[in-house]
């Protein structure tokens, strides 16, 4: 039981209390949240596309587990809706 609990907890993202105090989690908004990953939200068009930009001074860059990861300076994801 405790091993499973630990695995569940380490999978949770790190969230900023200050950010979500100012931007309630349960309200609709288009403010990108703070994060702790190798990429941050860059440009976007709501419902159409989003671009993530690599964080140059990402805290985990030199960790062995990240070797060969996070190779793209920018990642763009485009959303397509099937209206049929």
Mean pLDDT: 88
Give Rg in angstroms: 16 Å
- Class of secondary structure makeup: alpha+beta
Instruction: Note the beta-strand portion.
Output: 15-25%
Low-confidence residue ranges: none
Strand count, sense and barrel status of the largest sheet are: 3 strands, antiparallel
| Distance linking N and C termini | 46 Å
- Overall 3D form: extended
Number of distinct beta strands? 3
| SSE order | HHEEE
Supply the number of structural domains: 1
Q: How many helical stretches? A: 2
Give, in spatial order, the strands making up the sheet with the most strands: 1-2-3
Which percent bin holds the helix content? 10-25%
How would you describe what is shown here?
This protein is α+β, with helices and mostly antiparallel strands. The protein has one domain. 18% of the residues lie in helices and 21% in strands. It is built from 2 helices and 3 strands. The protein has helices spanning 2-10, 17-22, and strands spanning 39-45, 49-54, 74-78. Strands 1-2-3 form a 3-stranded antiparallel sheet, with no helix packed on it. Strand 1 (39-45) and strand 2 (49-54) form a beta hairpin.
Key words describing this protein structure:
single chain; 84 residues; alpha+beta; 3-stranded antiparallel β-sheet; 2 helices; 3 strands; 21% strand; extended
Brief overview:
With 84 residues, the chain is of the alpha+beta class.
What is the fold's blueprint, element by element?
Elements: H1 2-10, H2 17-22, E1 39-45, E2 49-54, E3 74-78
Antiparallel strand pairs: 1-2, 2-3
């Amino acid at each position: 039981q405790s091993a499973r609990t630990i695995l569940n907890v380490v999978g949770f993202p790190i969230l900023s209390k200050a950010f979500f105090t100012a931007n309630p989690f349960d309200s609709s908004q288009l403010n990108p949240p703070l994060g702790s990953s190798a990429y941050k939200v860059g440009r976007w068009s709501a419902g159409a596309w989003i671009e993530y930009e690599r964080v140059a001074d990402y805290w985990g860059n030199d960790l062995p587990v990240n070797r060969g990861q996070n190779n793209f300076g920018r990642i763009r994801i485009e959303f397509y809706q099937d209206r049929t």
